[in-house]
Specification:
With 315 residues, the chain is of the alpha/beta class. It has helices at 20-24, 31-38, 51-66, 90-98, 115-127, 152-155, 206-228, 245-254, 266-269, 276-287; strands spanning 3-12, 17-19, 42-44, 73-79, 105-109, 134-142, 160-170, 179-182, 189-191, 202-204, 237-240, 295-302, 306-314. Strands 1, 4, 5, 6, 7, 8, 11, 12 and 13 form a nine-stranded mixed β-sheet that branches. Strand 12 (295-302) and strand 13 form a beta hairpin. Bound molecules: coenzyme A.
Length: 315
């Protein structure tokens, strides 16, 4: 047996709030449509802040809450596809900004909205081989840069934010037992890149995403439980990617998850992609809804058709 536990989590969202009423002034939409279809009321957009600023704030909070010093970190992974530079990566900018030792393994992972799950699983594997047993794992996105303001179906959905978790590896801890999937899909949901002449932009077939998500979520939850030998009752809290309130509601109803065992912050932040799961972890610790010994199920799904789930315990 060996695995990781979460020792602390932090998050940051830039101060500029964009409400549904603000969007009504620039696109043909309305609060009733956005709220009833998605659950989103506001989202935060960067103005002066950089992606690195968001990462630094979230990571500093996570380190403080964990009581861990930068020099104790052996692995630093940022899940993102919207960092300040294509190179250097966001994790190495954190190495500089936080003063992580220069032999810390620092790199970024892109698995869109499921990125944090891929990153925390990778950190668990790498920490087993690291001389320092603490890892710093982030999900951070500045999606406001990629919004297509001509497309009312997507421009209302996304926000900017970063979330971070400090994890500790120990040979006595249980593994996350992460189940991670992808089926490369460049049409359903994504962001264009260097294969396109125009600047990067979000594209999405909303109904396809919805159908995909409502199947992917329960299927990977079942797989994660089977892999870890746990039942739904062994889970203290469910942390869903915050893409759409209706997708979360369907999963909650299917498993009869009581209200005190799950959390939604999509109303405030919109869809922050890779940041959404660690943002929830951070808010849950602030609210005292999870604490030492709490076992949480992390569930992610999204762009490029990637999805997965994992069970993580708080130290
Ligand atoms: C995006 C989503 C909310 C759209 O809801 P929907 O009921 O499928 O809506 P449709 O795309 O079928 O569009 C229905 C109508 O609303 C309109 N519409 C789209 N966006 C709108 C907006 N922001 N405001 C008002 N009307 C809008 C459409 O133009 C369409 O109008 P029409 O019937 O006159 O053609 C829904 O598909 C969804 O939640 N999908 C999952 C998205 C998601 O979670 N993405 C991230 C995954 S990580």
């Amino acid at each position: 047996m060996s695995g990781i536990k979460i020792c602390g989590a932090g998050h940051y969202a830039p101060p500029k709030l964009v409400s549904n009423a603000d969007l009504e002034k620039i696109v043909d939409t309305n609060d009733e449509w956005i709220t009833s279809r998605t659950g989103i009321k506001t989202r935060h957009h960067c103005v002066e802040e950089t992606h690195s600023d968001m990462c630094r704030h979230a990571a500093q909070t996570a380190l403080e809450r964990a009581g861990i010093k930068p020099e104790e970190i052996g692995v630093c992974i940022v899940a993102t596809f919207s960092s300040d530079f294509l190179s250097p990566n966001a994790a190495s900018l954190l190495q500089r900004d936080l003063g992580l030792l220069n032999d810390t393994v620092c790199f970024d992972i892109n698995a869109a909205c499921s990125g944090f799950l891929f990153a925390i699983h990778t950190a668990e594997c790498l920490l087993a081989a690291s001389p320092r047993k603490y890892g710093l794992v982030l999900g951070a996105e500045m999606l406001s840069r990629f919004i297509n303001w001509e497309d009312r179906g997507t421009c209302v959905l996304f926000g900017d934010a970063a979330g971070a978790a400090v994890v500790e590896w120990n040979e006595e801890y249980e593994s996350l037992g992460a189940v991670l999937h992808c089926e490369g899909d460049s049409e359903m949901l994504g962001v264009t890149g260097s294969g396109h002449k125009a600047p990067p932009q979000i594209f999405m077939q909303g109904q396809q995403v919805f159908k995909f998500a409502v199947n992917a979520v329960p299927s990977c939850m079942d797989q994660a439980l089977t892999r870890s030998g746990k039942t739904i009752d062994d889970v203290d809290f469910f942390v869903f990617h915050q893409a759409n309130t209706r997708i979360i509601d369907l999963a909650v109803r299917k498993y009869h998850i009581p209200e005190e065992k799950y959390y939604k912050n999509i109303e405030k932040y919109g869809n922050t992609s890779a940041a959404s799961i660690p943002m929830v972890l951070s808010e849950l610790t602030e609210l005292g809804k999870v604490g030492p010994g709490s076992r949480v199920m992390l569930v992610g799904f999204g762009g490029g058709r990637a999805w997965g789930a994992a069970l993580a315990e708080f130290k």
